[in-house]
Amino acid sequence: MPDQQANPTLPKAPTGIEGFDDLTYGGLPAGRPSLICGAAGCGKTLFATTFLVNGATRFDEPGVFMSFEERADDLAANVASLGYDLDGLVAAGKLAIDHVRVERSEIEETGEYDLEGLFIRLGFAVDSIGAKRVVLDTIETLFAGFTDPSLLRAELRRLFGWIKERGLTAVITGERGEGQLTRQGLEEYVSDCVVLLDNRVEDQITTRRLRVVKYRGSSHGTNEYPFLIDHEGISVLPVTSAELDYAVPGGVLSTGIAGLDTMLGPGGFHRGSSILISGQAGTGKTMLASSLVDAACRRGERCLVFAFEESGDQIIRNARSLGLDLDQHVAAGRLRFEAARPSLFGLETHLARMHRDLDQFRPQVVVIDPISALRGSASILQATLLRMIDLIKARGITAVFTTLRGDGSLMRDDDLGVSSLMDAWIKLQNLEANGERTRTLYVMKARGMSHSNQIREFLMSTGGIRLVDAYIGAAGVLTGTARLIQETQEKAVSELRLRETERSLRDVARRRSAIERQIEELRAGLDAAQDEEERLRAEDRLRAARVEAERQELTARRSAAE
Amino acid sequence: MNDITPDEHSPETDPDHDPGHYHLRLYVAGQTTKSLAAMTNLKRFCEQHLAGRYDIEVIDLMENPQLAVGDQILAIPTLVRRLPSPLKRIIGDLSNTEKVLVGLDIRPKADQS
Q1: Residue A220's closest CA among A391, A27, A351?
Q2: Per the record, which residues fall in region Disordered (chain B) (predicted)?
Q3: Are strands A169-175 and A33-38 parallel, antiparallel or unpaired?
Q4: Which positions ≥6 away from A313 have C-beta within 8 Å?
Q5: Is A130 helix (H, G, I), strand (E, B) or coil?
């Protein structure tokens, strides 16, 4: 995209074609002729018609359609499917259609002439409705009707001069020619703005592209932009912007799976991040994404799912087996499925459709399931995914991509290439052992948060998705029945150990009580000995006292006799 | 479809209908040299080849621009042979008499005499 803004002095006439007015910063040059060229079937007439119809209905600028190829009735019928009511606009005086029939066989040239009749017709039609816009589709037909090209060229030059003089914003269509933009070199005369429409087929897939070749006095997007023609008309999508300056929305987005949320530090993914879910067929990628979508819808957010391998109904049905009712979200307008085979359009067209759907639906969560379904050469695929992620991130949308990780090295390379663009990567893997397959999940990376590095077993049932801690031990990582067996074994072993310990404890207690008993006995013996000692000492003291008393009595008796 | 009502005269309902009669209409835009030359050439030519069995209607689109659509006029001057059918268109100032004869399906005078 050009970095400078359009010169404000150059007035522009908006075409009302989504995207085109953005990349030309306002539309076609007002009051000047612009050339729209391209090969047959490029959408030139539709571009021109849209320019007129939008002018009449949205910008209050009536227009004249001068058709050199299609009759007015055909023209009206061709665009009726887009909801353009040409007859109604004609009746309302906002549009005039003049079919100019040029039939070589009916014209005999007998001398000097000019194309004043064309001027008069155009002038009359313009004056009759006060037209501001004019379409000449395809004026080169004149070259088939008249033999004098130099006179025609002079007259065309005069016509374009006349258009400028009258201040009419004109769209002139021209068929793509060999070696130049148009067959008759109209680009020489219409020098203000030239838009090239292209319809290229690669690998049997058609992609429409538009390029502003020249825009005098104004900056414009210079790239080739894919554009769409479908039931909503024409829309151009400038999706090549590759700036990384988008604002990051705050907040955390819960995945709706309790076990997965706890594996992530903040309790979910950062909003606006891109999340890759990789895994082989049957690992539960779509169901994991469905759970996330269901959780988002329950919170009242809007989700858009681009399904490349299944129809929306099929996803809804499959999600029902997990107990998720996605139907109610679709009915409430919070969930939309856009299912299309990847081979239906080229990558550019897929991007373009995505761009339009994102802007229309304005979702908070987008699921692309799976990106590995997109086909193309590695470099183109990489570029497309990069732009896809930019497209989504620039809008602050949380994106969930799923991818099948095949065994082929190319796929693995692609995966690695993609993974660097992703903020988070959940890997689903089927572990096969002992004749059993188990789903496992782990978080490979999650930018800007701490996360569990452990493998989890991933169980899907009618109750939803549940994560179980896998057994990690000496015997390796065990899941499924093996995990159950191992767990039972461990339980038995630990029970045995428990019983043994208890027995030892009981033994020790018993021994301890025996010792205590012995201590009691000894203490009793000790007490008895002490008592004996006391008694003997008391007797001894008593005897000594008696001897003393007897001796004193003897002494007294002896003294009396003396 | 168009707000400009074509000025259609069906040859069958024309009162002057007779096989040899020529009903010619010359479209011009103002009094330009080409227009004047065409008028002079046409008059001379008709007197020479169609004396007594022609009528000429001159339409100036500057005055009646709405009439240009009906006969699919692009070039000026244009001579339209309304009768006898089929409708023929001759453009230019009619200076090339031979081409005018071919255009109007008139055999040269030499054959008639």
Answers
A1: A27
A2: 1-22
A3: parallel
A4: none
A5: coil
In which element (H, E) is residue A230 found?
A: strand A225-230
- Residue A453 main-chain phi, psi, to 5 deg: -100, 10
Half-sphere exposure of A534 (CA within 13 A, CB side): 6
Rounded to a whole number, what is the distance in Å from the CA of B32 to chain A's nearest CA? 11
The predicted complex's ipTM stands at 0.78
The angle at the Cα of A245, spanning A239 to A249, to the nearest 5 degrees, equals 100
Tokens 């004193």 correspond to A552
Q: What confidence score (pLDDT) does residue A411 get?
A: 47
Task: Using alpha carbons, list the distances in angstroms from residue A146 to A102, A176, B74, B90.
Answer: 9, 20, 10, 12
Could you tell me which of A115, A144, A129, A101 has the C-alpha nearest to residue B69? A101
Pick out chain A residues at pLDDT < 70: 1-9, 238-247, 405-417, 473-477, 561-562
CB contact under 8 A, A123 and B75: no
pLDDT of A245 reads 58
Chain B stretch 10-29, residues whose beta carbon is closer than 8 A to a beta carbon of chain A: 27, 29
B51 shares contact with chain A (CB less than 8 Å): no
In the numeric block, the tokens 């080169």 are attached to A140
CB contact under 8 A, B68 and A124: yes
d(CA A141, CA A175): 10
